[in-house]
Amino acid sequence: MKHVSPTTDWSPTWRHVHEFDRVEVFGDRSNPAHTAAYRNRAHEILDMAAAVLSPGDRILDIAAAQGNYTLWLAERGFDVTWNDLRSDLEGYVRLKWEHGTVRYAPGNAFDLRFPRPFDLVLITEIIEHVAHPDEFLRTVASLVRPGGYVLLSTPNGGYFLNRLPRFSDTVDASQYEAIQFQPDASGHIFLLHEDELAPLATTAGLVVREVRLFTNTLTNGHLKTSMLHRVLPSRVIAGVERGTRRLPRALVRRLHTAMAVLLQRAETP
Length: 269
Description:
This protein is an alpha/beta fold. It is built from nine helices and seven strands; from the N terminus they run ααβαβαββαβαβαααβ.
């Protein structure tokens, strides 16, 4: 992926997403905890995708924004389709493209027509912004071939600082329709808990294959630990991260802010 710098002709949208790229992938050290958390998630997502796919397999990256996962996966030999409602971001992604097969399908992914279903659909940090995550997941599953995969990442609802409701405890999710699809953490509606995943998957015709919980309080810089990223070597923070992941599962659920889930669509009978 090419590193790019703003020019005078860039749109406000390009400038906005570049601010995230600057910290998350281009090496800016102004917010090292944010950088560490983002790179943690990217490592898990790329590792989980590579474990179940073969070179040349087709991936749809929904709501892919500045396209980092799209580009990284293409560079690893996959045939990746970038998608986002903000069609103007296509030009920004093209600017960063260096090599690999990337196709572009801006718009509402669920209204588009693709020639055939995908081997994997990627939905990173999206489902927590949706009023009806069950319906959303069911629609995503329809874009996957039988035996194919859905790979999602989302904040972990079991994290001890989470104050948002569980989807499974909500009687009428339609009350949230007016505020769904808002960006950034302020737009989160529900945060899913690990024990909610299997029922959601079942309603979508999917099976949970793997759940990874990661990015502890220190790695994410919560509780004013972000300042420690400026004095502790990165290997120390990474060591603490590895240690907390080895704790009993009940503690892992409480101490980690992020979750990645691999789901598989049932084979055709």
